[in-house]
């Protein structure tokens, strides 16, 4: 059974930039009739509020909106109070892994993050059993994807989160409407093109999305469309690839369904061919 999932969260990637600049992912959308295993669909997603990273990691990974989770800004440093895709998967015998920013380790493994202890994590008792966490916003995306692929090949996780930070970093330095921000998205698209076919062949369903977008003030956090509109690419044969409306709060339940684990999270039935 192909019940494995790779979730790629490209931090700070605006919907329109994903649409305009990521030629490989857009190419997958256009080859619908060749290989059914590689079918891909792009849905627009409206992020929950505030459009900030840590609150939306929690939203994506637990299905709970920031005002309800209490993780309402980036300075709330504590473990999550909710079931997450990691805790649900781990407690039902699945293998979990993440190559991600250290705030993810703080939400689901241990808070506060201690780099010497937590940067490389291998502990069957933690929600994220195999982790490679980083705490530099400029940690190269190329290195982060290599970290993730190392985890994937070494531990064959059922659930792997891949979370690079450079797009967001370029947005904070140069803004949404900048060559640096767009070129960073193009760079991630090229990196993804080196991995996605192999991941599909190894039985993974793939979700590529973002926590929030970016604005021209070199920031995000509010309700501007460019801050809230993010992409949702779904790739694999467990998706219907039909038109439907997906909420950011439904990603957690969607991934639980793909993993075939018990959960009480909301998910959009019409997205999944299960
Ligand atoms: Zn940011």
From TrEMBL:
It holds the Pfam family Phosphodiest. Gene3D superfamilies: Alkaline Phosphatase, subunit A. It comes from the Bacteria. InterPro entries: Alkaline_phosphatase_core_sf, Phosphodiest/P_Trfase. GO terms for molecular function: hydrolase activity. This is Type I phosphodiesterase/nucleotide pyrophosphatase. It comes from Vibrio brasiliensis LMG 20546.
